[in-house]
Design a protein that fits this description.
The chain is mostly helical. Strands 1-2 form a two-stranded parallel sheet. Helix 46 (about 810-825) runs antiparallel to helix 47. This is Meiosis inhibitor protein 1.
Amino acid sequence: MHLIGTLFGMLHSVEDSSALNLLVEDNLVDHLLMGLTYPNESIKAAVCYLYGKLYSSPAGTERLSGHFEERLCVVFLNTLGSAQTKELQVNCLGLLKELLKSDHFVSILMNNAKTEEETENPDFLEGENPLPLVLKKLLLTRDEMLQAASSHCMAAVLVHSPSRYAPAFIHADVPEFLFECLLCKSEILIWSVYCCLLLLTEERLFFSKCHTVYGIESLVRSLRGVLLLNNVELHKQGLLLFTEILKRQPVEIKLFTNRGVCIEAIDVLMETVNCPVLEVAVEAVKAVAAFLRKDHVSSPPVPYEELQKLLEAVLKRCADLSPPQSSKRHAGDVLFSVSQSHPANRNLGRVPQRQGQFLLNTLESFRNACRLAVEFQGDFMAQENAFTAPNSESKDTLSNFSEFLLRICDSLCIPMVMSYLERAVSPSVTEVFISALSTLFTVVPSMRNKFSKKLASSSFIRLTLELKARFCSVQSNPVLNHTCSSFLCSLCLNLYSATEKTRTSSQEEQEMSELLQKGLPQLNYTIAESLLLLSETPEPFFLDQSLCSHQHCFVLLLYFAYSFGDRFVPDAELFLAVRNFLLSAQDHGDCLPPHILRAALYLLAVCQDKGKALDVRSLSTIRRILDNLTDLSLVYVHCPPLLKFFLCYPELMGRFGHQVLQLWFSWEDCKQTEVEESDFGSSDQLNSANPLLPILKSNSSILLILLDLVCSSSVEVAWKVLMTLRTFLERNEDVLVCDLLRSRFLQILQQLLVESSSATLQANRNLPVLLNLLFLVQLRSKGIRELDSTDFKLLHQVCNLCGKCRPRDTDLLQPSLNFLYWSLHQTTPCSQQRAVAVLLSNVSLLELLQKVLECTWLWSPPSRPASLSSEDALLCSGWLLVASLLLYQHRYNTEVHQTLSVDLKEVLNTVIFRNKKPILLLVSIMQFLRAVLRQNFSSALLVIVGQNTAPNAAQPQPSSVQDTALHPLAMQQVFLLVVSLQNLLVHVQLQKDLLLSQAVVACLETLVEHLYVKNQDVALHVASQPWHRFLLFTLLSGGQKSFLQPAVLRLMTLFVRYQSSNIISQKEISQIIQEAAEASIAELPEATSHALHLFLSQLKANKIEKP
């Protein structure tokens, strides 16, 4: 004890070398060592304290190094291992702490003299008090101070060399007890354990021995607990440990064997991500990035919903840190604005470094989530929640998670990165961002093309090219270069797949893929440099493959960018560069692949309005290049500029116009044909919907090509051509065009009739379309005109065509009969007389008309009387044409070579009983009936047949004087017909059908006129029927109370003419005159004005004075 007291007195001068020499030379330290063998632990504690003081100074450590190695080490470890009192344990740990500062002492304490194989062998731990076991024993105590000191000493050992010393602690199962210590409340102990475990993560044995699997639950709960403490450094250290474990955990050893622990870890990460302290949130996002690994979250069922919430929290937290975008600019514009302040690091100071790191970690998390979704696509168990109840839908599926990634990328990720790029551009941030976008192409395969289109339209091609030019030139940033090149390659192939649906050439896609993969990594030029490169000409005797590869890649990129509106090169400059590129290729015999030539032609087409017109040499070059193609469709792009490009140059239109127009209509949408006019009111809207219309107006010779297409193309293409021509004819007042079309139609019809038989004509599906167009051309001539030789030849050909058809050939006969009918009516009397002669001289046409009329009684009525079938439409045309022929034959006394026969009872019964006949068919038959009545049933063309009676016809009555006078009509038929016409007028009032009302009133007028000629008493009797007055009241009781209605006025005229005073009184006549005086005649409809004129004229003729 005296010795110890003396040494205590010398401690104050231990820094003095003379005092230290005295201790060593007088062997006082050897006597001090004996104190550690004394049975009294208080003395041992005092000795340890003295040793601690001695080894706390550098001089003492150096002079006493041999003493420790030769004598003190073993005794000290025994003392520490057998210490029972806390005083001795604390002092021993104090001494150990000082010793562990020296590499040499650590090596001695850890028996570093043994080989590595011996160290990894657990048997060496069975020796006398090895340090790992001694420290482990202290961890087993429930004293948090000793546990903290022990873990601190372990960390002090490991910090010297984790790879050398960690195996000893791992074999001693120390990590298990360290994880158990995390359940305490001591911040010091938790910090020490975090530090120690963090050093152990550098050794692979720590993971292969499954210590992390054992301790992950304790770590997660510890992290949740420390979040309640106000210790930012502790939060960061715990998250750092968690991140390292997540990163370094071997793939083959699943870390989260319990799904509950995995979800608890997600909850902890969400809490830390939302921590208000940015430093903690940064570490949390790093942990999220490491957590998003398949082996970490693949325990079925995969918690997709929780992962969505976690990822959304990360992105929203990062977005909250970023200021909003200053404007809705495209990606290329954003980068361009930043690049104006080159070099890159000039703006980096404006963005806090920690914020940039946060964004980088966030993007890594998002990229890992995308990779996770792709990896799960090959795992059937991960597709959806296997524990979902039957007949119920689960939102916890891979499909929903993948769609979420796509949505949140669009709504949060891309805007956030664009906001960052407005202020600075970081290669690491852009590399992760572009990599994530590349992965997204395969996350939702069904949305790949749509996503690619959106990226292209948002200038991501330009953005990526700018990134490569700025950061990847001179072989710098190879990772970023590879990422950008892969992204551009995938984007272009996706766009090719989306836009070239009709071109399913796997070989072309493979060639394009190889070109892009080979050329894009070297294409690290600015846009201006690349444009110059495009115009560059290779050496005359040396074809530079590298130059060609660069040119072809750049042309493809421009093509896809321009296809989606990203026109980042001035049009005039690009037009000139592409033209020079084609000239150079042709001059040097470079055979351009179809996809490159297609892209070049498209770029020329879209830039032609801003560039100068191509000269003769350029057009000749393009023509030679295209002549070498086996099929023009290989380079065709369905867009208005390309169509205009081929049609605006005569040199190209004459050679390729037919093929281009064929391709244009083949690719056009069929739905556009019928609704084209109704959907677009203005001329500009219509031109934008059908861009061929303004081209046709400027170059009418294209119409001849279109007519060839009608005859030589498929029905679908021919119908589209017809719709375009119809719209063009209706919108453009050009008679010369109609003359041109009629002449061409004549040639086509003559050729078809000469080369085809009846059977082949009926099988020709394009002929109906051609006939429809012929009728449309005729409709285009609104006024009366003289028929020329072409018109009469067309009449002759159409009549011959009709004669070769059957009544069932409605698609051929309908437009043909319409054409014949219109030819009779829209011409002068002189031409009309010749046209009637042409029609009546064609016996086969009249025989066909006879069959068509007979079909009226043979064909069954449709299920809905309001609908007009193709058969009914043909019947309408047939009856109207026959009615016209009866009228004009009688007028011009034309010679008849074939008569028509009609059963009068069938005609009357059709009007009387209607039998569900369509309205238009009734109107047509009434027109025929009027023509017959006007000729008093006497015509050289028509034979009236009366013996065949329909089943529902009225039974014949005994002959009377009236029947004899009215022959072939019977009195009963007359009354039935009048009543039917009255009923039809009431029906018209309800249906608001002006056409039918005019036809009914006209038929009633003609009937009374016929009766007046045959028997005046019968006519006056019919005109004076009391029901007529009731009919007038019914017509006036509808929605329109006025007398100024066409049907009412014409009925009034009829009653005034035949002086039916019981039907119309002087009061009604005065009221009509009063309304007419108050009305503005100019504002009245034409039909009403005409009916009023007839009424007033009839009043004047009957000399009825105004009251």
